[in-house]
Design brief:
about 450 residues; alpha/beta; 7-stranded antiparallel beta sheet; 6-stranded mixed beta sheet; disordered N terminus
Length: about 450
């Protein structure tokens, strides 16, 4: 049974009160999307039960009579379903990692995770803290949401028309993305119909906000100075989220993002109205794409000045809205994250962002910088980019003092395994066995997982 909180109103441990009166009816959300002919993004309430999830899927597929969803197509539905040409993104909660005031999902999941029995799937394997359980819990419910929508829409609609998303903190903050996806990879295989992550989840990632590196005290000229944007922290975080997503074969999507103008003393509306804002957004969005970013949902049309795109709804000719028109009309910037392929990915290249499980350390062999400390069951993943798909060979260069077998994945698809023969005595670098690999166009994330032994890595050549 799905563990639920008591019926609303519910008082959380910190005194926050949650009520059931907030929100917009699903019928009105679908009606708006149909009127504008735009894709729909639905958020499932954090503690919605199984029946609610099924009713939500039915409403999107068949419409409702104003109270209950239909269970089959209707000639004249009272409230129509989502237009068949439109896609639906489905997310559980909102900023489930965020403990700040006004963000409710984390408080709810903390209340649930702290009371899960030890045989609950989220508790297997045993988490190292309650927070790991909190990060896993949305992945567990997202898997259920995905399978429920599959039952209503059919297999052919999944990951095409129906797009479940698993959103986390940007840049894998607090290990929210790593904990969720690593656990989900194991759990997916235990479902009644065993799944891969990319059969349950269309995309993952955090927010897509970007800012400037320095000089905000002399606004607005310093803000828009060439080379001052996007900020390095955002670029790094975009890359990390892309690596985690593509590592498991899914896309990198941002649930919200855009220029973040939360600078003390800044006149945000003056910055928004500055014509240079358009160039800032176009340039920053190109970098988002270069780091492997796919859909970036911009936030928001009208609201707090640090995020809004227009000061009032009658004014639609603004630099930010012109930027969205230009971005939509421009081909996506090609991926530049990681090394160019065909080629060689060097483990300790200063320009390469990587992800891994376990802890490692830097080491030098034959005068070359290497990454060490990879033990049984651990993985590491490196990015590259290819202008076009190709079939080639993969070889690992490194050192192992006992025979080591490495499983190889590219963008979540298993390619096979290579072997580093063990050598005793003084350490030297040498090549592994070779395997054929299929390399896709765009972002390429190569994952090596230690199946036996342990090793030190210098490079991966494709």
């Amino acid at each position: 049974a799905t563990p639920l909180l008591p019926a609303p109103p519910y008082t959380a441990p910190d005194g926050a009160v949650f009520d059931s009166t907030l929100g917009v009816p699903i019928e009105h959300q679908l009606e708006l999307c149909n009127h504008l002919m735009v894709d729909c993004w639905l958020q499932v309430p954090p503690v919605a039960d199984d029946e609610f999830v099924r009713n939500l899927a039915l409403a999107a597929r068949f419409g409702t009579d104003g109270t209950n969803p239909y269970t089959s197509p209707q000639a004249a539905p009272v409230y129509p379903p989502l237009h068949p040409a439109l896609r639906v993104y489905v997310e559980l909660g909102n900023e489930n990692w965020n403990g700040a005031s006004g963000f409710l999902s984390q408080k709810m999941f903390l209340g649930i995770a702290g009371h899960l029995p030890p045989d609950h799937p989220v508790m297997i394997p045993a988490p190292d803290s309650v927070w790991t359980a909190v990060w896993r819990y949305p992945a567990w419910r997202t898997a259920f949401i995905s399978e429920t929508f599959r039952a209503v829409f059919g297999d052919a609609a999944m990951m095409t028309r129906v797009r479940p998303v698993l959103m986390t903190q940007r840049g894998n903050g607090q290990n929210t993305m790593g904990a969720a996806f690593t656990w989900l990879a194991g759990y997916a295989a235990t479902l009644p119909t065993p799944r891969r992550i990319d059969e349950l989840v269309y995309a993952g990632g955090g927010s897509g906000y970007y800012g400037v590196n320095a000089g905000v005290s002399a606004l607005p000229d310093s803000f828009f100075s060439p080379g001052n944007y996007p900020d390095a922290y955002s670029v790094r975080d975009f890359a990390i989220d892309s690596l985690w997503a593509y590592n498991y074969g899914v896309r990198h999507v941002a649930y919200e993002g855009g220029p973040g103008l939360s600078y003390s003393g800044a006149d945000n509306r003056a910055l928004n109205a500055d014509p240079r804002m358009q160039t800032m957004m176009e340039t920053s969005h190109a970098v988002w794409s270069q780091m492997g970013g796919d859909l970036l949902v911009y936030y928001n049309l009208r609201g707090p000045s640090e995020w809004e795109f227009t000061p009032h709804l009658g004014q639609l000719d603004t630099p930010k809205l012109r930027a969205l028109d230009a971005i939509s009309a421009t081909p996506r910037a090609p991926v530049t994250l990681g090394g160019a392929l065909p080629g060689t990915l060097v483990a300790r290249s200063l320009s390469t962002t990587t992800i891994r499980s376990g802890f490692g350390y830097d080491y030098t062999i034959d005068g070359l910088p290497c990454a060490a400390g990879f033990a049984l069951g651990q993985f590491l993943a490196y990015p590259g980019h290819a202008d076009a798909p190709y079939t080639g060979e993969l070889v690992v260069r490194g050192y192992a003092n006992s025979t080591t077998r490495l499983g190889v994945w590219i963008n979540g698809t298993y390619q096979g395994e290579v072997t580093l023969a063990g050598l005793s005595g003084t350490a030297h670098l040498y090549d592994s066995t070779r395997i054929p690999v299929a390399v896709p166009a765009g972002l390429v994330v190569v994952r090596l997982e230690v199946l036996s032994g342990g090793f030190t890595l210098y490079s991966i050549s494709l």
